[in-house]
Write a structure and sequence with these properties.
- The chain has 174 residues and is of the alpha+beta class.
- 33% of the residues lie in helices and 30% in strands.
- It is built from 5 helices and 5 strands.
Length: 174
């Protein structure tokens, strides 16, 4: 015959199981995080990406479209394209009264600063936000101070804009 202790233990266990089942039913099934949500959470909690990089989903397409990786950039005049995840931006007043923007981007192969001066910045200001993946077109110049290269941006494109451009299409937004 079971002791009082065994009976009490079984009753308590049954109550705990029922309570757990009721709580689980109320919570429902939690959907897994999307890759973007997971990466944003990692960056917020840890200060770095642990399981990937936001640009990974685009690397093959960017390569096929002729976009240079930051680690592969060499000095060359106008028309070179480089893509990256916007890490930070600084906006400074220019001597002429306008504003200049210095955007730090990361493409997993490295980081580089893209300088947008005057009209180039004003034209593309709305696109430049922290966490965006953007393509910059411009001059790649030697960086005398840092020993590498720097980018003087003339145009800023979103991935969708680049896709349209590659297909020879034109999109007008009103």
């Amino acid at each position: 015959a079971p002791s009082q202790h065994d009976v009490a233990h079984r009753l308590a266990g049954a109550r705990i199981r029922r309570a757990t089942e009721r709580a689980s039913a109320r919570r429902g099934v939690v959907a897994p995080l999307s890759t973007r949500e997971r990466l944003e959470g990692e960056k917020e909690a840890l200060g770095l990406f642990l399981t990937g990089h936001p640009i990974e989903a685009y690397l093959a397409e960017l390569g096929a479209l002729g976009i240079s990786r930051i680690a592969d950039l060499r000095p060359r005049r106008a028309g070179q394209l480089v893509a990256g995840w916007v890490v930070s931006q600084r906006v400074l007043a220019s001597r002429r009264g306008g504003e200049n923007c210095f955007v730090e981007i990361d493409d997993r192969s490295g980081r580089i600063e893209v300088a947008l001066f005057g009209d180039a910045f004003e034209t593309h200001r709305a696109l430049i936000t922290k966490g965006a993946i953007l393509i910059f077109e411009g001059d790649i110049q030697p960086d005398e101070a840092g020993g590498g290269v720097k980018v003087r941006g003339e145009r800023v494109l979103r991935i969708d804009d680049l896709r349209l451009r590659a297909r020879g299409e034109l999109r007008v937004e009103v």
